[in-house]
Design goal:
The protein is α/β, with parallel strands linked by helices and 270 residues long. It contains eleven helices and 14 strands. It has three domains: 55 residues, no CATH class; 143 residues, Rossmann fold (3-Layer(aba) Sandwich); 66 residues, Putative phosphatase, domain 2 (DNA polymerase, domain 1, Orthogonal Bundle). A six-stranded parallel sheet has the order 11-10-7-12-13-14, sandwiched between helices. Helix 10 links the parallel strand 13 and strand 14. The termini are close together. 40% of the residues are buried.
Length: 270
Amino acid sequence: MRSTKARKNVGGVKKRDRLKFNWGRGFLKKPRPQLVIDISDVSYYDIDMEDFLAMIKACIFDLDGTIGNTLDSMVYSVNLTLKEMNLSEISKEQCREFVGNGARVLMEKALDASGNPGATRIEEGMQIYGRIFDENCTYHVTPCEGVPEMLYKLKKQGVKLAVLSNKPHCQAVKAVHAIYGEKLFDWVQGQKDEIPRKPDPAGGFYVAKKLGVDYKECLYVGDSEVDVVTGKNAGVKTIAVTWGFRTKEELMIAGAQYMIDKAEKLQEYL
């Protein structure tokens, strides 16, 4: 295992004020030999890696913006929907802001921004979007940089892998299989009527059960404020990634404690 040395002053936080936290045992009263992991350039946390690795049996990943570059498929499908409804298109940046809370919220925001204040045509829009997105959910989808290598290493180490997304279930499965094939992930879960969407923790509990592990043995990884809150609500350790749909500042405001800016950083320590 490699370690990184913490700088004397990070983000205005003095060395004496930094948290000493052990993910396996909580706050430490006395220091002992540990690895110091630079999870973000905001905070450093001392972690006993052997305890951490012994506890984590599964990693649950968000899909859009976390393991897959899927924004083009959503922009394309939303704008085809709006065109069919004789409404103006939204920009890619607008779509980036609108995603994260499921297809219905995405379309509500898109309709409101494109000439249908209050999204009064949402039912019509959802019917059209459902048809169009099902046909185009794999449009220009690619893996996020460094993520395939990280996932294959985790798989080789015996860590169970799953996806939990607010994307409609059928399209979530299609997108994951288009990017990673059908054998890499042990479970893929998208939004279904019987499973509340994130940030409700029910989906995380359901996935953990399907994986055959206790939810406390799971690490959750996502790229948005929805993911940060999902992890908190589920009571699982959560790492936010900064290469997705939200900025580091937005993730911090949402309460993210642990952040990485490259997939290899998760790969190194898991």
